[in-house]
Design brief:
The protein starts with 6 loop residues before the first helix and ends with a helix. The longest helix is centred in the C-terminal third of the chain and has 20 residues, at 172-191. The model has no long low-confidence stretch (mean pLDDT 78). Strands 1-2-3-4-8-7-5-6 form an eight-stranded antiparallel beta sheet. It is built from six helices and eight strands; from the N terminus they run αβββββααβααββα. It has helices spanning 7-21, 95-102, 114-119, 127-134, 136-144, 172-191, and strands at residues 28-30, 49-55, 58-66, 74-81, 88-92, 120-124, 150-153, 157-164. By secondary structure, the chain is of the alpha+beta class.
């Protein structure tokens, strides 16, 4: 990282680093520098810079969404493609959810781990999901992924979104633990 480096430059450096580390036919990336008005889903973002490759044995997509309304910030979206029968959504629990749970109006799944249950809002689909969330090693891996906006595990992929507030957040050394933890989750899901 260089002093005064911009998000755009750091993003290109990260994508180039990923392509070099995970070289092969499947490793490629593209970067855009302008807002694409034809894609309404990106109305608050510039078109994402994207890496597509095989990391830790799984097809992986990494996107850096630069925020149009907050030029110094971006979001990192990592998707690991893993076929499974798991359907879990994990987000941070906000005060309104805590109030609903206090009055018994919430049907959120509870793992029995007070810290985990108080920190996260869990949405699950089946008993297999319950068994996975009750596993302390799985919960520890989820906690290692902090800080994240959301973590979703569904039938096709594991996806995590993180806000990146500085250029230093886009260093590979900051991204590598995310990739390692997602690989651990993918292996655990393939076993279940």
């Amino acid at each position: 990282m260089q002093k005064g480096e911009r998000i755009e430059t750091a993003t290109l450096r990260l994508l180039d680093d990923l392509a070099n580390r995970f070289a092969g036919e499947s490793a490629s990336y593209r970067s855009y520098s302008r807002y694409d008005k034809s894609r309404p889903e990106y109305r608050h973002y510039l078109v994402p810079s994207t890496f597509i490759g095989r990391i830790n044995g799984y097809d992986t997509t990494i996107q850096v969404h630069r925020r149009r309304l907050k030029p110094g910030q971006c979001s990192l979206l990592v998707k690991v493609h893993v076929p499974s029968n798991i359907d879990i959504s994990i987000k941070h629990e906000h005060i309104d959810e805590k109030v609903r749970r206090f009055f018994g109006l919430s049907n959120e799944f509870q793992t029995g781990d007070k810290y985990f249950d108080d920190s996260y809002l869990l949405r699950i689909g089946s008993r297999v999901d319950q068994m996975l969330l009750k596993d302390p090693d799985f919960r520890e891996t989820v906690c290692k992924l902090e800080p994240f906006r959301f973590l979703n595990i569904n039938c096709n992929e594991i996806s995590i979104c993180r806000n990146m507030t500085s250029v230093a957040d886009l260093e590979f050394i900051q991204i590598e633990p995310i990739l390692t933890s997602l690989g651990d989750i993918a292996r655990r899901i393939c076993k279940s």
